[in-house]
């Protein structure tokens, strides 16, 4: 198996005594879409900044394309496309001027490719960045990120604040990007419906630790939303719930041991969860 | 090949993929030696994760229904004993289920059922 991202024992704290990342490990296979989820403040953006060497790590190892990030930074960055939520484009610049800065940074910049995206996204290069709507800004960011034949796309909250139609367009663009062999996408989000649609692997971060790292379909098959009458619960089956809420005479909970629980609670209703159900259950634990 | 994946079905997605490809091979809809879509293509087409699609292909290959030739693609294999065996096994499972249901209705226990099975094997001198 080829891994595009390998992270081992990564630690980071901004101030003494409060660790943002408490030694995280994960690997991402080549050719997949990986979703990085967690609550605000979980450490997602810090992880992404470390993966791009924008901030210094305290400990641990980051390998991209099988190579150490520190020792091969230039070569690695040439193969990465980056999209951030906000604050990395100069608002006062015209699109065409912002593009020049980007084009100069990559040795394999493809102007034709860039023009193709500008036409496709109906962007006006004479406009200033601050005049663009949020959706247009995201598309412009994507055009910049995709125009140097990147093999890995790293994005921090690319869909936050976008309306459903633009989010769907975004997902289609990712699908198109993935059609070529060997391309990989890693992106953080808290809009989990995007992940239901497109992710192959889900990594969940909570308080600086990776608490879940699974193939999406396996994750959704192992877990189940269970509903039933309160009297079905007993001290043994209660322990098999990740989260459990009891109301007047009924209960609803999420389990990670679907098959086992199914045999023990024959009359309960078992439903397939969404990623959001799973995420919330783990966060509430 | 026409594959439809249900998101609400109880059957795991990789199993649905596997079953439908198997079915297509068994019924001859996909012929011996026919090229199957690549993992990425099939994943895109069915909107299923590549990892799940890969798992389905891996298992189908293990069971001898398909074969991947590096650099050329994945091909269907029929005319193969394994397939016949599989189809027969399914028959056995169906008949056993029938026997179980009839037995259960008149109160035959698991032990009774196993005893009957043991006698069958003993009488026919097999194990």
TrEMBL record, chain A:
The keyword Nucleotide-binding applies. Residues 5-232 form the ABC transporter domain. Keywords: ATP-binding, Nucleotide-binding, Transport. InterPro entries: AAA+_ATPase (IPR003593), ABC_transporter-like_ATP-bd (IPR003439), ABC_transporter-like_CS (IPR017871), ABC_Transporter_VariousFunc (IPR051782), P-loop_NTPase (IPR027417). GO terms for molecular function: ATP binding; ATP hydrolysis activity. Pfam families: ABC_tran. CDD domains: ABC_DR_subfamily_A (cd03230). It comes from the Bacteria. This is ABC transporter ATP-binding protein. It comes from Candidatus Galacturonatibacter soehngenii.
From TrEMBL, chain B:
The keyword Transcription regulation applies. PROSITE patterns: HTH_GNTR (PS50949). Keywords: DNA-binding, Transcription, Transcription regulation. InterPro entries: Tscrpt_reg_HTH_GntR (IPR000524), WH-like_DNA-bd_sf (IPR036388), WH_DNA-bd_sf (IPR036390). CDD domains: WHTH_GntR. SMART domains: HTH_GNTR. GO terms for molecular function: DNA binding; DNA-binding transcription factor activity. Residues 11-79 form the HTH gntR-type domain. It comes from the Bacteria. This is GntR family transcriptional regulator. It comes from Candidatus Galacturonatibacter soehngenii.
